[in-house]
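Duplicate of earlier report; histidine kinase input re-posted below.
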Amino acid sequence: MTFSIMALSSSFLVFFSFSLYLVFNEDNQIERHLVSFEQVAIQHHALDNAKVVSISPNVTAYFSEQALTERLKAQAPYPLNEVTRYNRFSEDGFLVFHTEFIDKTGTLRPLYLSVGMRALDFGDDSWDSLMLVALALMLMLIAFLRVSLQRMLGGLMSPIADLSEQLKSEKAQRFSVSSSSIDEVKQLADHLNSYTQMKDRLVKQELMFAKYASHELKTPISIILGAANLQAMKQQKDFQARQRQRIIHAAEGMQATVEVLLNIVKQENTEHKNTLTEFSYDDIDVQKSISKRHPDVQFTLKIADNTPLNFPPAVLNMLLKNLIDNSARFTKQGHINVEVTSQAITVTDSGCGISGQNETEHGLGLLIVQRLCASYGWSFTLSNNAHQAGCTAHLERES
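Output:
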């Protein structure tokens, strides 16, 4: 409706302007036509010394002001060598061209050429019919443009409306548009599908993260509660000291875990990713717990003294713990080798490697590693060994 009103309004303005142009142009043509009869009138006067001569069916020449008709006299005097118009938009309007010439006796005589405003028609004789035809053609053009634009806009808006309905629907798993849609709408649907997959992946990661955090916090809490209960059973100083040491060790581990998890969630560690900390073999406390939990697996750790890393101690120990636990989960017997340098960390095992059946289990254990690597500017890859069984987890500093 809005487009129709705008189209009709603009068409009326164009039609009105075009009509005025034709009217004014026709008046100018009549004026030039009237002036062109000057020499013809002078020749007529030389042949016939009459005071009024009909040069053509529409143009009359007057050779004195007294010879003018009463209607023409009423508008006298007329400017010399100019065309004067009166009532140009009226049916009884007229034009008068006033000039002077020297007759054959050497006398200066006036000349008045007159013609009616509507006496001549330089266009089609059926002016009204021509205007009606032009108006009809314009209306047809408007209708054609309206239908064309409606189909074009319908082809553009229909896929967008479909996408809107799919967004409102809770059952829609994948957004789709017709193959005839424009490329921009297809790209929009692809981006929506990409964002949906990203959202689902983030939700799954958050669930995995919550499950991991729950497990990491439940274990030290259970140790603390168990040690506290055991303390109440015996009053021996050695026994009390051992239980107290278990509580302190579990509390410190839980504190480190909570600190790392909060840093990941709040991303507080990004501003410290360029802060280097020197590590040695004594700063890594995972080898003892690994030997106790997996006695059939040979564990080796290679780290040079004073190796600078941009990980805090708690973060480095959590990274190694997760990587080693992941390797130990799929290595019943054999070896797990860990090598730490200032630019790379490598954990190699001789287990079953990566397959489709245990890929999800690998992902559950390594989510925290991916988060930590992303926060501190490290890359993380997990791949099968090329020439032997097992897989290798490789961390490399990007900057």
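The first strand starts at residue 52 and ends at 54.

Merging into the original ticket.
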